[in-house]
Amino acid sequence: MAKPATRRLLGGAAAVVVIALLGWGVYQAFRPVHDPVQGQIEAQEVNVSSKVPGRVGQVHVQLGQAVKRGDLLFELDSPEVRAKVAQAAAARDAAGAANQKAQAGARPQELVAARANWERAQSGAKLARVTFQRVQAMYAEGVIARQKRDEAEAQARSADELATAARAQYDLARQGARPEDKLAAAAQVRQVAGVVAETDAALAETRIMAPAAGEVTKVAIQAGELAPQGFPVITLVDLADVWAVVAVREDEFQPYAKDTLHQASIPALNVKAQFKVTLVSALPAFATWRAARPGGTDLRTFEVRLRPTAPVPGLRPGMTVVFER
């Protein structure tokens, strides 16, 4: 038989154990429980479109295909663009020919013809002057009438004027185009060159290249369909630029301050990874949590973006990511 003192000691110890267990149970029942924060993986997307409208001639990629920057994605068939290119090329040739003509001046044959006209006019003027002198002498002697003398004088003056005009034509042929005409012709060439560059750029826009590396996740238009200007024909996703997005209530936001590090599990890959908070922004006003007690304040929800601190093989947009608290 145990002594009474021993029995009292054992009973007290048992009571302490029971009280401790009851306290632990109450604590576990009423302590705050923090559920894991669940988010989703997102990635940078690029919508590829054309600056010119046209009919899709050929699509060179397929869904799920990985492309590099500069790879040909699709081509447009645009007769209107080809016609503008041909018009611009013809205008360029015409402007170039006009400019060459203005800069070169008259041809040698034109110079020879102008000089011959001037010399012929000079000879005619000289003959007209001699004839007038003879008629004048005869008029002074009273041999012919004044009318004949006046006609001879008019013919001499007309011949001199014709010789002067022929000399001016010869001088113009020697000098070539005026400086203003040369400048205008050169400016026309530059203007047409701009038009040619514009049409060449439009033609280049019918061959659409990948602006960045990525994976083809959407092909909105197939060959033979019309593609409006600026319509996203192909969507690329950059799997090297991924992040996790979680929504955190305002009263639970403190652990997710910018630049903080967090461990997360990715169920689809059955791996854990470390993420770093890179962006925090408040969601629109309708995304709020009402206070549970009367007289409290609304609790806003924040969008938190976290990027993996190291590449995670196989990580793709849409995967679930779970952050433990």
From TrEMBL:
All copies of domain Multidrug resistance protein MdtA-like barrel-sandwich hybrid, residue ranges: 45-230
Gene3D superfamilies, sorted: 2.40.30.170, 2.40.50.100, Helix hairpin bin
InterPro entries xrefs: MdtA-like_BSH
Pfam family, one: BSH_RND
Protein name: Multidrug resistance protein MdtA-like barrel-sandwich hybrid domain-containing protein
